[in-house]
Amino acid sequence: MKTKIIIAVLLLISYSCNSKKEEQNVSKNPITEKIISLTDKQLKNAELTFENIEKRNISATITANGVIDVPPQNLISISMPLGGYLKYTKLLPGMFVKKNEIIAVMEDQQYIQLQQEYLTAKSKLFFAEKEYERQRDLNKDKASSDKIFQMADAEYKSLRIMVNSLAEKLRLININPNSLTEKTISKSVNIYSSINGFVSKVNVNIGKYVNPSDILFELINPDDIHLNLKIFEKDINGLSIGQKIMAYTNSQPDKKYQSEIILISKDISSEEHSAQVHCHFNNYDKTLLPGMYMNATIELKREPVQTLSNDAIVTYEGIDYVFIKKDNHTFEMASVKAGKNENGFTEIINAEKLLNRKIVSKGAYTLLMQLKNKSEE
What molecular function terms (GO) are annotated for this protein (predicted)? Predict the structure, then answer.
């Protein structure tokens, strides 16, 4: 009894294996015939049309990704060279500011001291200048010794240097020394925007003391915000300055931003084998912020290549084929290597064997089915 059961199981396994092999053989069904002949009736029903391989301008596109970037000259860091306490600001990230607009007010006792020192030195300079002129006239008439004249000259020059240096310190904190008087001394100084742009960062709050090295605010000039793309080494040679690209964000892929290439890096990274390509937006959108991730489609240079219409190319088991007319009733299936595709036409890379030959366009799939059925018989 056990022997019969074992034999039955073995027969079942053998049958199953044979069935799978038959299914695999049926599923592949390779086309062994490459030539097909049609009767007059089949030709009439197929309604075949023909074309010649022809040179056309075909452009390829590549996709890339990158981030919105700001060049160093358009990213402004605002600080207070002498430090101090923040008395007032209304800035918030994203706010637009105009050039020379007051964006903050600082106060500190050292501002008072600096103004005092300047006015005092300026007053002493006035006296020293008069004394210098008096000693100069006396020395000409030998009514005064050279030593006294030289001392007056040294004092005058020393005070003039001090006044000029203190004036530059005042300008550093936005105080005009030419309009400063004993009546206009103030504990507060204003900070002005140096550009028309947007506030990127606010790093302080009212009442906080900041050091000269601390960055209070960061401003962005949007005139030169650009897209920094990462392009792989194999695609770099197809790019050029002025080339147009279309960029879009992940959140709004249908909204396109037209840009053009302004700089192609000559440095290829060793890790990713890629280079940076900088692109300028034709029309900057305020919703695009530095650091935002973007995608881009780049159209490579257009060049004339040998092409066929898409209808002429049929694909079977991952290989592209075309049908070449041998005579009025006979056609030969030939494999081809397809390249770039645009506007209904496909580049044929190995086009030599197709030159000056009639290629089936409409009806190519009909011929493929005829050959497939013939191979299965």
Answer: transmembrane transporter activity
